[in-house]
Amino acid sequence: MIIIILYILVTINYYNINLSLQTHQNQFGHQEIIQLFLLMKNIGLFIFLNTCNIVCCFALSVIAPFFPTYAKDKGLDLDLIGYIFSLYPLGMLLGSLILGKIITDRNRAKIMNVGVVSEGIALLLFPIMYYKGDDSLIITLAVIARLIGGFATSMFLTPFYAFIQQLFPQEVEKMIAYSEVCTAIGYMGGPIFGSLLFQLGGFTLPFYFFAGLSFILGACLPIYYKSLQGIKESFIVQKSQSPVEPEEPDISYLKVIIKYPIMATLVSVVMIESVFTFYHPIQADYFQQEYGIDADYVGYYMSLVNITFISFSLLVAQLKTMKPFFVYFGLVFSGYLQLYAGPDYDFTKQKPDIWITTLAWLATGISTPAPYVLGIPQLNNILNDYYPNSPKKANNIASALYNACLAMAGLLGPVVAGLLTQYYGFQRSTALLGLAVLAAAAFYAPYLFIYKEVKTQYEQGKSMKSNK
What we know:
The protein is an all-alpha fold. Helix content is 81%, strand content 0%. It has helices spanning 2-24, 31-61, 67-73, 78-102, 108-132, 135-167, 172-201, 205-220, 225-238, 253-257, 260-277, 283-291, 298-302, 305-316, 323-338, 345-348, 354-367, 369-373, 375-386, 391-424, 426-444, 447-467. Helix 7 packs antiparallel against helix 19 (375-386). The radius of gyration is 22 Å and the shape is globular.
């Protein structure tokens, strides 16, 4: 259903673009028909890759509803469970930063294919852990599975986001936003599907199911190699009237991240993703202990945020102006809502109540889409302003940094959550998370007053270069 909705949105969007192309390119005879064919092929490829995207992202959160309870029954401490959760994003963080430097048009498809298949292999380690049941083996296999899974996800996501500009050079921002919706669906839909499959077949079924999907998609991906390579033809056709500009030899991560506009965006992405990853190791246990929710159903409560998040993400993808302001207010409201996620009595004067907790979680799905969905388009725009002669490398770096931020949030969120909850309890821990998000909003605030000025400055710089 999600893929069908995505297909409709993308098709409508590109039908309008195609009309515009026909208006300006009638002198090329049959070129409009060729372009329409290429656009439809790209749309089909885009939807297939986003299917892979959703499945890869499911692997991060599918264990959230039931693995913490299983691990606690086996004698693992809550902080150790948090460390295990954080290993997946550690692998993703390392993979994103490495791949951002080595991705090329030639190796992109193969890297994505290896990533999808490796994800399935990592998932199969969990059933082995379950059947063996030895405590030390559980820790060892969980560590290996999460590290491999994280690196595998980065092998798909990092080239994928950088690849979107070549698929849809005229509507990069909107298409990235659609992909971000799919990424969010994957990350946050895992608990509900994990719970459903756990009910149907126990601990092992979620892993067998998603491993099987990974292998099927990995087997299908080579079929698209010709399409992936053929995008160059599409890109050349659509850009044939533009001069080819030489690329800069390299873009340094250090030189990029010390620039305030980029740093402000990265911090906002890390903190808004932390709003979700923070709860992975602790939320299921809290719902069971505080509110008596059965383990079979706790995943549904955890996934209520999906209802509002997906709906509002699709709305955010349509935004045309004032995007930094939506990012800022999204951070502010997200931080404020975390005070009620427990709720924390000292901050809210409210005692624990399942309705307050649930409504705060639902409202979080309204406040988080803007910072989440607009993060990578904003990074793309800023980096292309700084490096106008290196669009491909700028896109690779933007994709790598964005995925690294998601990974860093996934790395720090569970670890910090486990430690804080162990010493301060769930309610105070979520309040501290809220204060951290509000601090990120304060750090982002100056960007609201300079982003137009920065954009104008770089556009003037590019005009001067072109005039020379």
